[in-house]
Design brief:
GO terms for molecular function: transmembrane transporter activity. The chain has 407 residues and is mainly α. It has helices at 3-9, 11-27, 31-43, 47-75, 78-96, 101-118, 122-131, 135-146, 149-164, 166-186, 207-210, 218-236, 243-249, 254-261, 264-278, 284-301, 309-338, 343-372, 374-401. The chain contains 19 helices and no strands. The longest helix is centred in the C-terminal third of the chain and has 30 residues, at 309-338. The protein is globular and about 60 Å long. The two termini are 16 Å apart. 47% of the residues are buried.
Length: 407
């Protein structure tokens, strides 16, 4: 089927999958920021415990993702996503009945299983199985829209809490999973397996199916990719949460720091939009290289720049633009490297080191800022990101030396 007709034929479903991402990330990753005050008041949970739920969600995803990935390659995504939506609904229902830290954190373990089965990387696998060669652009466009999750669900969660309380709000989240998300997942077509060209004397498999990495170099490519994105993720999931503190230490007022920090969202969206529309003209590893270089340079320049609103604003805009480019590359590079045949399993394996890095990042950067200060933390961030850049550079050189694969 031509890619244009494939896109139009699946347009409503792709829009539905965007909605599931908005709901999925908005009700899980972003909701504790709004729920925290009520949880502290009613259950006595401090910020470490509240956000510890996100840590449990990510670690749980790391533990189960490899097994889920193997199932997705064999059976497709529909069954896993449907079961995941039901488990997420159950998790939110259990969370609404939490009475203390143990029941609160246990609820996030349940949500983490559902999240890993239905959201996380599973949506990208569904797009790859549906869209073929248009996968990179479609994922980029979907991530462009889902970058608005916090903008939608922070105020929505606050409105629901003011009207009904936090326990009823969580039950509304459970209902969203059952009555909005589940029907959309059920509409995903059945997966009939990847083609096996060797079986009937057909043409050799294209790079879309087999990937660009030679069989003997796949392990090395895997570890270079895992290291590059884990190093970058350690910074991108840790440093932005503490930018307001960094700017205040640099001399800005609380109000100035908050408004400057809000520039990060629009910058990320603009970068994703540019990548989605123009990125297909370049190999994804080169786009990733650009982001992995831009991020550490920003972290090195800011401590040397004159303290002020302009320098902070430029840093936030450029740094978050780099993170936006890297986030799309993190979702699409494994497909280019390893092909559709093992895409889900490879994403599952890559999830393990990446989610561990994501999980420890917020606490690590809180400690670094407290112990080392703003400038030293930024320099540390730059060093970590440079390690990721050089890993991606080694991968790009490996791909440049590889023989051409049939298209």
């Amino acid at each position: 089927m031509p890619s244009s007709s494939r896109f139009s034929g699946h347009g409503p479903l792709l829009c539905g999958l965007v909605a599931t991402r908005l709901i999925g990330w908005g009700t899980t990753f972003y909701s504790p920021s709004v729920l925290m005050q009520a949880l502290d008041r009613d259950l006595g949970l401090n910020a470490e415990i509240v956000f510890g739920g996100i840590t449990i969600l990510l670690v749980t995803g790391a533990l189960v993702a490899p097994a889920i990935g193997r199932v997705l390659d064999r059976e497709g995504t529909r069954r896993s996503m449907c079961v995941g939506a039901i488990i997420c609904a159950l998790g939110f229902a259990v969370l609404s009945m939490a009475q203390g830290p143990i029941s609160y954190l246990a609820s996030w373990f349940v949500i983490g299983i559902g999240h890993a089965m239905s959201l996380a990387n599973v949506g990208n696998v569904a797009v790859a199985q549906l869209m073929g060669e248009r996968t990179r652009r479609v994922i980029g466009l979907m991530m462009l829209v889902t970058g608005l999750s916090s903008s939608l669900f922070w105020p929505l969660t606050a409105i629901l809490m003011d009207a009904f309380g936090w326990r009823a709000t969580l039950l509304v989240f459970a209902a969203m999973q059952l009555f909005i998300v589940l029907p959309i997942y059920a509409a995903v077509p059945r997966f009939h397996g990847h083609p096996t060209p060797a079986a009937a004397g057909t043409a050799p498999a294209s790079s879309l199916e087999t990937g660009r990495v030679e069989p003997g170099k796949r392990r090395m490519a895997f570890w270079l990719t895992a290291f590059a994105f884990s190093a970058s993720g350690l910074v991108s999931w840790g440093l932005p949460l503490h930018l307001i503190s960094l700017f205040r230490e640099g001399g800005l007022t609380q109000t100035e720091a908050v408004w400057i920090a809000t520039l990060g969202g629009p910058a990320t969206i603009v970068a994703r939009a540019i990548d989605a529309t123009l990125g297909e003209r370049l190999p994804v590893e080169r786009v990733a290289l650009f982001g992995l270089l831009l991020g550490p340079l920003c972290c090195l320049i800011l401590p040397l720049a004159p303290t002020g609103i302009v320098a902070a604003g430029i840093f936030v805009a450029v740094f978050n633009a780099a993170l936006g480019v890297i986030s799309v590359a993190r979702a699409t590079l494994p497909l280019a490297l390893f092909g559709r045949r093992g895409f889900a399993a490879m994403l599952g394996q890559l999830t393990v080191p990446q989610n561990i890095a994501f999980a420890v990042a917020p606490l690590l950067f809180a400690v670094l800022i407290e112990r080392l200060g703003a400038s030293a933390t930024l320099i540390f961030s730059a060093v970590i990101q440079f390690f990721g850049f050089f890993a991606m550079l080694a991968l790009a050189r490996m791909l440049a030396r590889a023989p051409a694969v049939s298209q």
